[in-house]
Amino acid sequence: MGTVVEAANKGENGSIPEKNPTVVFVLGGPGSGKGTQCANIVQQFRYTHLSAGDLLRAEIKSGSENGTMIQNMIKEGKIVPSEVTIKLLQRAIQESGNDKFLIDGFPRNEENRAAFESVTGIEPAFVLFFDCSEEEMEKRLLSRNQGREDDNIETIRKRFKVFLESSLPVINYYDAKAKVRKVDAVRPVEEVFETVNAIFAPKIEKAE
Ligand SMILES: Nc1ncnc2c1ncn2[C@@H]1O[C@H](COP(=O)(O)OP(=O)(O)O)[C@@H](O)[C@H]1O
Ligand SMILES: Nc1ccn([C@H]2C[C@H](O)[C@@H](COP(=O)(O)OP(=O)(O)O)O2)c(=O)n1
Ligand SMILES: [Mg+2]
Hints:
Blueprint: H1 4-9, E1 22-28, H2 34-44, E2 48-51, H3 52-61, H4 67-75, H5 82-96, E3 100-104, H6 110-120, E4 126-131, H7 134-142, H8 153-176, E5 180-184, H9 189-200
Parallel strand pairs: 1-3, 1-4, 2-3, 4-5
Bound molecules: adenosine-5'-diphosphate (ADP), deoxycytidine diphosphate and magnesium ion.
């Protein structure tokens, strides 16, 4: 027989529920500066940065059975089925040992969003949205120089279309729930980070 406290701490099926992690979704068009700003946030606050795109690219490199499918979809600017991406995110969450995550570039469509919510039961604390013009994003992507197969003008145009048609509705969904923190991302990196910093600073204590 367990104590009352033990009983209260157990889930309905008797398992001990894991502590709910804090998740911030970091969204914005391709080249809006998600990865750049996530690196800054990690330096200042106790977060683990999980880039869905980086996890998918690592999966291609690892020689996984899904590698070719992922590679073809990325080259076409298409969004990989959530089943694949969510497994990678879950594994990275478990391996991190942290309980605060910046999930960068996910959810990118309604299917990503709904599946993540039902599989993990996690609701984001808020959504950081980098609002940037296509003109500026195109310029940045064409000079990113990371050797990415999708940073060519043909794929970039496809990615912009997918962003408008599939990813913006996810941002609107969270906006209707008052969860979106919109940041003007056209400005220089340091200025964008000043705004980002002000969003995180009151909520999360600084790492020493
Ligand atoms: N505010 C900014 N002003 C100018 N260039 C930027 C800015 N933020 C990021 N960049 C550059 O633009 C490119 C895309 O940034 P990145 O962080 O990879 O964006 P995302 O992850 O949203 O695609 C990179 O080469 C990066 O150095
Ligand atoms: N949730 C996601 C995130 C990325 N992808 C795929 C499709 C995207 O065009 C590529 C690249 O994503 P990534 O976030 O690295 O790209 P950007 O940083 O926005 O330029 O990965 C996906 O299929 N599903
Ligand atoms: Mg990125």
